[in-house]
Design a protein that fits this description.
five-stranded mixed sheet; alpha/beta
Amino acid sequence: MSISKPNHRKGAKTPIRMLRIEDGRALARFDHLATEEPLEIRLRSGLGQTRTLAVTMRTPGHDFELAAGFLFAEGVIGSRDEIRRMAYCTDPGEPQQYNIVNIELCSDTLPNLAPLERHFYTSSACGVCGKAGLENLRLRYRPLEPGFRVSSEVIARLPGILAQHQGLFRQTGGLHAAALFDASGKLLAVREDVGRHNALDKLLGWALLENRLPLSAHIVLVSGRASYELAQKTLAAGIPILAAISAPSSLAVELAQEFNLTLIGFLRGSFNVYSGLERLEVGQHLP
């Protein structure tokens, strides 16, 4: 697989002039905001058949990881070996904005995308709309194996470690993060984006391109809430523990319980466990 590297990348933060109101006075200031721009993901078969798969609002950076992670998490591809080449669009007549990624597959035909039951339009705020339900997930995945275990003390330390590596968030205050840890709490990778779904896709794309999947002995931590989409992507990567700084949704809990995913919410020193307590090494717990 080849990856075309651009000579220029758009920044993940954008300077902007604004007014700050203090004590009834308007003061001219500059601020740095998280950049939000569209990324179009195009699929191309070995024979040149092309289709736009998705348009997502994202923070520029790690675009190839985002595209690859999205394809993997949605079941469009099953391994890195199915990708022949990834490059930014260089079609004649189209200005290079680094906002279109072409993914050429090894197959001569494009995969059947009908079972995904949507046009694949996403936004940084809500992720993919029209998500296939639990019935479709039962056809694609099996419950996760129960063997992996981790100390509750390790889990409690993870938000502090993540905070130390959220450089763009400290500068802009407007980015989500997804981080991957091993059982000892060692940080392996972190990705930031205006969209929480994009941040996790970038992380999974990194793991896919590094040939690290499945991640059956790892923990993923997300900086916001644990939605159904994030739980589904975690399941796709074989990650047994999903932890979130904020709350899970009801459907995320339902998915976690059905597929034996350990789901942790409100991770702020103490934390809530909604599914898969058996993976955590804790003291005696009361009913």
